[in-house]
Amino acid sequence: MPRRDDIQKILIIGSGPIVIGQACEFDYSGAQACKALREEGYEVTLVNSNPATIMTDPEMADRTYIEPITWQYVQKIIETERPDALLPTLGGQTGLNVAMDLARRGVLDQLGVELIGAKEHVIAKAEERASFKKAMESIGLDVPTSFIVHNLEEARQAVREIGLPMVIRPSYTLGGSGGGIAYNKDEFEAKVRRGLELSPVHEVLLEESVIGWKEYEMEVMRDVADNVVIICAIENLDPMGVHTGDSITVAPAQTLTDKEYQRMRDATIACMREIGVETGGSNVQFAIDPKTSRMVIIEMNPRVSRSSALASKATGFPIAKIAAKLAVGYRLDEISNDITRETPACFEPTIDYVVTKIPRWTFEKFPDADPELTVQMKSVGETMAIGRTFRESLQKALRGLEIGHFGLGGGKKDLWGTDRQPTTDQIQQKLSVANDERIFFLRFAFLDGMSVEEIRELTGIDPWFLHQLRQLVEFERRLQEYDRLENVPADVLREGKRNGFSDQQLAGWWDTSESEVRSHRLGLGIAATFKQVDTCAAEFEAYTPYYYSTYEDEDETPANEDGHPRIMILGGGPNRIGQGIEFDYCCCQASFALRELGIESIMVNSNPETVSTDYDTSDLLFFEPLTTEDVLNICDRLNPDGVIVQFGGQTPLNLARGLEASGVTIIGTSPDMIDAAEDRERFQSILRQADLRQPANGIATNVEQARTVADQVGYPILVRPSYVLGGRAMEICYDEISLVRYMTEAVEASPDHPVLIDKFLEDAIEVDVDAIGDGQMTLVGGVMEHIEEAGVHSGDSACALPPYSLSEEMIEEIKQAARRLSDALQVRGLMNIQFAVKDNKLYVLEVNPRASRTVPFVSKSTGISLARVAAKVMAGKTLAELGVTTEVVPEHTSVKESVFPFNRFAGVDIILGPEMRSTGEVMGIDESFAVAFAKSQVAAGNDLPREGRVFISMASPHKAAMIEPARRLTDMGFQLVATSGTAEVLREAEVEVEAIKKLAQGRPNLLDYLANGDIQFIFNTPSGKGARTDEGKIRAAAVAHGVPCVTTVPGCLAVVQALEAMVESPMPRVRALQDWMLSVATEAPGGD
Fold first, then answer.
1. 783 near 814, Cβ under 8 Å?
2. Which residues have CB under 8 Å from 305's CB, separation 6+?
3. What single-letter DSSP state applies at residue 1005?
4. Residue 1019 to residues 441, 1022, 1047: CA-CA distances in angstroms?
């Protein structure tokens, strides 16, 4: 049946900011759906609060609302836009929950909006644990024994029936949030209590433990005519007990017998029919007992999921795009497969290669967090690799993680054979508990002489995978039998490359350099070849240019017969804290810009969640790890005219020097100038030439030097290692004791890796500037004022554009300084500068001549697509030629706010500092700063209360600053509570306040008030940092109970303004981005 003509306008709900459990895979699916529906002639309205994604670019949908994703705001958008239908299955759990809220409250019926893609009763049947269990039992499918409980008494009853250990899963939460495994009664009660709090419907599923069973996922699609196709079977290397988002996963499934696979397939199709998903993609999870082969169905997501992005990239089958077309009435046999153009979408994909996904964790950012992996997801990103065998794809994925490992073993980070080599006990301990290093300890176990059976006993990992790993270890030993590169037979070297060993690993074992290994193997004719991803195991010709590398004889890369220009864009690799989707946004914009200039674009990236790795974003896509070796392999075949390294964050910048040394042309700002901005001494001379000041600073390579520099500069100081992104290991030291501790514990300083020491400007205002230079002029894209004072990492700070408190003269001085720096560094393309303003003096903190994480935010605030303009400049155009020469200062205010993962890491102190810890961001837009800030808070999930009790506890220097804001809070009707010191200061100023005991003074204290739900908001600036202090406990308890907590003085002032704005206009105000853009329209964005 063809497309529906009774609907014209469709609303898509996005997934909001990137959080753990819900990353940019939903931006990928949402962006695909927008494209697919507009191709079909529908008008698309989109709501999403995340400015960092390409999905919220004004040209992606007809109407784009960057507004908080709550049912109140979405209701207002529906009233304004009057869509005919709402598609809720592409915005992850966030989109689904808001759609269900609107349906339950009758808003959709009242406004005549139909849910398409999945109906309300279908979503409820799959998401509500009891109804799902009942549905599965009714069709004869086995599920783990379980009980649904709504309070502790019911939970205790369930324990008597099932026994421990037991799995706890709250209903309607995201990424397994609040879930866990209880091994004893105390753990059980604590986890159930927390689960009931976190579930929006206060319901928890308790089920028998299937920990240690094998885990599988089936990606499946069904249409209105009951055609069902299985897109992909994914197998988890880690057994049940580890969240699938934290598992290493492999496609296609490797260890199922044909009979088991058919049984699982039949169960998947039966499940789809029973639940009633008839238009779109779903994901069904199974567990199989390795001892008895009993198969149980764990859960089903009636929406596009994290695994859908992986399955799409693994097979080349665009799940989200086809799901969107099914939702508007098409059948699978009416939609053609883009890749083959011959087969319809009802052909099941077949693949003749192996795909491995490995999660990327950032526990180093949260030293207090527990790195054990359980049923609650903790990873922030993932990398995917394609190889001809599991061994090849695993090693490629390990080097794609960018954690300093270039494969399973070898390299500088390999502990084996060093004095830090783990003991047998340490190895067994690391194997028995799932953690982020377990894959490396599996290798240690084989090197230590453990058998496959012993390792299986400890880990529950299937013997097939362990045999594969053992083969890698055995081959590694064989390679080490040769003492020199020249002595290695060509067939052994070729076999090593086919097993995924990198030049870097081989160089380490043969005591030579990576470039030596490369030139030696090329001399022997051992070069990477590239294969096409074609969905059909080469049965039909493929048209989409999507490639992966291997070491075989036939190469499928396209020749450049007419010699047209080609430019390569290096992506950002796996998402992590400090390098997220903002950089992917810039890479996509670069691709679009090259297309507009008629230049062929080549994208290289290893992140399956992103839009940049969609097969139709660039002209050619290479799904490869971002290492010097892998990028050079592609350059050998394609000979690009230039490579863009400035858009993918730190990842490609780290490769720039190596690529340049191998003769690759880097376009845009030169690597030498990028280096000059990082190098202390060169940068100081540039600042002197440009007549700009920076805070007093110095360099230290040992503790003694650090003491001397600190004395010259004067405390407090900011210390950090050189060359880092996301403020890794940055700290503010207030005295010599903390400096010595930092130098001895936090960093290994050396002449090659000096530590940078800066005078820390207390209470300064920090300012961020994004600009584009073309060699003739510099365009300042935007000046952003940070809300938190200097010292909070710019990626964690909220910021406003245009600035809300700086004078016109200071803003002009900032712009002049930016132009002088752009000239001095010969910038061609984007640059980002961080300034600090103290006592009306301007200081330069740092300059990055590359794309920054604020580029998408500035582009959406001003209507100029900075990354797209910059890419054209890098390709040789001038700003004048592009018609982008006028700076835009919008009349309205945009506020960017960061979103943090503290609720995933119990007990971690939430104080912000120079080390970046946020995973994502949201944006609030309004005419007034206060309302824009309020919107950003609501969008970030910091619910602003309208009434109730506010707890205030300020460090001594800040007490006086809080008097007026406190008075304004009482004027709004809030009751104030404070500890004795703050209460005294407020009472002297005649502000009404109730005093409350400090933790050390007995009870009831603040923790009791929090536990009873008597506190709605906390203002607490720190005097000491760390989770062990009283304040740390208070802040961690605030996170646990979901009470918003503000920890800086400017933050407190902004929140008070926002609360006043909410009292003044309690009804949500919404406006489409396209309308905001009309009010600033000066030039055509993108320089068309």
1. yes
2. 25, 92, 282, 283
3. B
4. 44, 10, 6
- Contact, 715 vs 749, CB < 8 A? no
Contact 588, 549 (CB under 8 A): no
pTM equals: 0.91
| Helices (H) then strands (E): counts for the chain | 37, 38
Mapped onto helix, strand or coil, the DSSP state of residue 570 is: strand
- Going edge to edge, which strands form the sheet with 841-848? 841-848, 829-838, 765-773, 778-789, 799-801, 893-899, 920-926
Q: Edge to edge, what strands does the sheet with 280-288 contain?
A: 295-301, 280-288, 214-222, 228-236, 249-251, 354-360, 381-387
Query: b/e map of 971-990 (b: 16 or more CB within 10 Å)?
Result: eeebebbbbeebbebbeeee
The span from the CA of 790 to the CA of 718, in Å, is: 11
- Is 798:936 a contact under the CB 8 Å cutoff? yes
- Give average pLDDT by consecutive 10-residue segment, the chain, 1088 residues: 90 90 84 94 97 94 97 97 94 89 96 92 85 94 92 91 89 72 90 86 88 95 93 96 93 94 96 88 94 93 85 91 93 84 84 95 81 86 96 98 93 91 96 95 98 96 98 97 95 97 96 96 97 79 86 93 95 91 96 97 96 92 97 97 96 93 96 89 92 92 89 89 65 86 72 81 92 97 92 87 95 97 96 96 94 96 96 97 94 93 69 81 95 94 88 87 93 93 92 88 85 89 62 78 85 92 90 91 46
Distance of alpha carbon 100 from its chain centroid, rounded?
25
SS (H, E, C) 825-878: CCCCEEEEEEEEEECCEEEEEEEECCCCCCHHHHHHHHCCCHHHHHHHHHCCCC
Candidates 665, 1086, 619, 1078; CA nearest to 867 is 1086
Strand partners, 530: 549
Handedness of CA 399, 400, 404, 408 (dihedral sign): negative
Q: Any idea what DSSP says for residue 1061?
A: H
Encoded amino acid at 711, one letter: D
Tokens standing for residue 656: 């720039």
Secondary structure letter of residue 12 according to DSSP? E
Report the C-alpha gap between 388 and 249 in whole angstroms: 16
For 611, 675, 828, 865, 913, the CA distances from 855, given in Å and listed in that order, are: 17, 21, 16, 8, 22
Dist CA 159 CA 168 (whole Å): 11
- Rounded to whole angstroms, how far apart are CA atoms 948 and 945? 7
Q: Say if CB 951 and CB 763 are below 8 A apart.
A: no
In angstroms, the CA 354 to CA 5 distance is: 42
Q: Which of 739, 1047, 768, 761 is nearest to 912 (CA)?
A: 1047
| Of 853, 400, 404, 829, the residue nearest 631 (C-alpha) | 400
DSSP 713-782: H-SSEEEEESS-STTTT-EEESSHHHHHHIIIII----SSSPEEEEE--TTPEEEEEEEEE-SS-EEEEE
For every residue of 130-196, DSSP letters joined together read HHHHHHHHHTT-----EEEESSHHHHHHHHHHH-SSEEEEETT-STTTT-EEESSHHHHHHHHHHHH
Amino acid present at 758: D
